[in-house]
Amino acid sequence: MTKKIEFTERAKKQIKADAKMGTVGVVALDAFGNIAAGTSTGGMTNKKPGRIGDSPIIGAGTWAENGVCGVSGTGHGEYFIRLNVAKEICVLMKYQNLEVQKAAQIVIDRLAAMGADGGVIVLDKKGDPAMIFNTPAMARAYKNSPDDTFVQIYKDFAENWLCNQLKGGEFKACVKGAIEEQEIQGKSGYELLDEIPSGY
Ligand code: ASP
Question: Ligand 1: which residue has its CA nearest to atom 4?
Answer without folding.
Answer: 77
